[in-house]
Amino acid sequence: MSPGRDAARLVDVHAHFLHERCGRSDWADRNAARLAAGARIGISVHIASILGSWGHTSPVYFPSPTDVTAANEAMRTLARMHPGLVRGYVTVNPNYAEHAIAEIELGLAAGMVGVKLAASRRASDALLDPIAALAAERGAPVLQHIWQHRTGEVPGQEISDALDLAALADRHRGAAFLLAHLGGGGDWAHSLRALAGVPNVFVDLSGSGVDRGMLELSLECVGPERLVWGTDLTMDTGWAKLRALETMGLTAKAMEDVRWRTAARLFRLTL
Amino acid sequence: MEDRGAALPADLVDHNALVGPYPFRRLPDPTPERLAADMSRLGIARAWVGHVPTIFYRDAAAGNDELLQALERHRARLLPVLGVNPCYPAWERQVDRARAEGCPAVRSYPSHYGAAAAGAELRELAAACAAANLALVLTVRLEDARQRHPLDVARDLIGADVRAVVRADPRLELVVANADRALIEEVHFGSTPAEAGRIRWDVAWLWGPPDDQLAALYRTVGRDRFVLGTHFPFKLPEAALTRLALAG
Questions:
Q1: How high is the ipTM of this complex?
Q2: Theoretical Cys-Cys bridge with A234: which of A208, B39, B132, B171, CB 3.0 to 4.6 Å?
Q3: Selected residue of B42, B146, B178 to mutate for chain A interface (largest A Cβ count, 10 A)
Q4: Cβ neighbour number for residue A241 with a 10 Å cutoff
Q5: Count helices and strands in chain A by DSSP H and E runs
């Protein structure tokens, strides 16, 4: 492989798609917009999840088992429609423990590459242990939705922060976890300080937040080897963080790690 | 590498830049030198530049002294935008000073200055700006509400605040920074066409694809209502440019 090709690869570890059961007439347009923007930015692989019905028939962050199953099926359909370009997370609601395990077994067997935990149950809760153990056994990374520094409860979510995720990660050192959307709202510095000594938690740079200082502290606290790139709901801000990183004096190898190499290793992608 | 071929205008002007430190978190290198360097790197020709400490000083005049001194060597590209606290004595002199210095606008922060945006002080400031041919810049928020320091209790501006200010004087030109899509739509369609035509919005707090808020607002509110705003040194200036590029 040429060095130029290595530098050009880009894996989005935090993408979302919609599907026809979301109650939105523009669901296909939104999916097309993501793929078009991805092509413009140069995304090689979108690793994506669908959070149930996105609130249409059960809450976004507390999806019913029926909606979880339908969404994971839709995610697999999208991956089949775009082979190599779109890969799927199995989204689960840990409150339905047996259903969650069955969905993970089914999804991974069908080619999905990771597990998505939204905000259905606090990350430190023991109910997540069987999921984390299975993920470790199968080598599937777990993307955990995070509120950067939880200082109270919020409506519509059972939020977790980096300390909650670190507690889970400490109990499952053979599993790889991704702290979702560092730029997704809250005190990102709190998360980075909390994860400095937690080697099996990787930091996903996605989210609408583009605070100056976030990238510098990320490099200081977790280093480029534990940073992975993503977009979440705002692809413009993901692109901006990528462009800013390119000006920060990282080595070519470190930049490739953030762009795609670490994600490819964690998710066992062949690019 | 990714496509960098964003077809951006050659004469880009950043309408929402500031310099100076912030009390609630470290802003890396919030200096005119860094701002100018980032502008050169990103192809931004000029910037309207405010001063972060002036938001927090009771006496905005003292902050304006600091801003003018800081920008002294950069005036060709960095245009000072003085702060005006219309609740403080002799605030009119800061408007006069802005005009004398050739500023394109003044900034005011009603939530931080303890003023009601719909109150007499802001109305008087709006009239003074209009008379002096200076635009007035209002800032909806400085940081996302989810990350605020416990002592940062200044409330975000709401649509009613913006509507009240634009209605205060029919000659006033208003620039609103860091507004989200909902606020822009509320104010635009809650104003007469003449009022809406005197408001420009910056793009610093909008979302790009796949939601495509900016592209949608171009279609509904009008492309000519939007100006570049990076919200330097709070935000990466790259974000406003990638948003413009992806909005087409």
A1: 0.95
A2: A208
A3: B146
A4: 28
A5: 11, 8
